[in-house]
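Translate sequence into structure tokens.
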Amino acid sequence: MTSPTFPFNHPRSHEILALARSGDQDQLAAVLQQEGLPQDLFVSARDAELPGAGEVLIGSEVCAFSFKDHVLEIGGAVPFAPGLVQIAEGLDAWERSTQARAEGILYTSDHRTSMSVSMSEIGFGGSFVDLRERLRQCARFYACLNPFYVVGQDHGWELLRYEAGEKYGPHADVVPGATSARQLSCLVYLNSGFEGGETRFLAPGQERTIKPVTGKVVMFPASFTHPHESLPVAQGTKYLVAGWFYA
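Result follows.
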């Protein structure tokens, strides 16, 4: 089985996985030695439970992914997603979601009508630590697919709640003039069973709509190239985690 610390951000990660799947132990050993990686990175190439084409290892889960127009979708990357909703509702700390101006001033408007809870290890315990590490793994994998992206640090995460009729209108996630530049946007869908609430990308030639599925992670450039919106929830309640990786 793959090591839980398999370096997906390594520039030869795809080559190493391909060698492990092929069973070419000699070549695999040579590459691992060249790159200073442990020879027991894979227990047995013949019997290993390796991600196949269109799959990636996040945590201990082998997850299907797709990558199109620089939008990465990874299904099932956060299997404990419903538990995050339970924790958030138990905290009773919801506040109106805000938007930010370049000078850092936060404000509310009818353009974004959800409620938010700021996430931390204090409130969410080990689940927050696990979530943060999984999202870093997803970001490192994103960098394997888009070599122009350099993995930075996140500045925290928000858990959002959208009730019926609530939405986030068309926008890009960059804040013009801000000194700390958002590079990579990230969404984690925490539940299903509601109507509406899809994420819709709006750039000409890139139009697409993503239906929320519990545990799915979506990552995409935060810049003006990827304007998007969260469509109104028609019925039920939608929960997700949102945040960014910065330069």
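Note: Residues 126-145 form the longest helix (20 residues).
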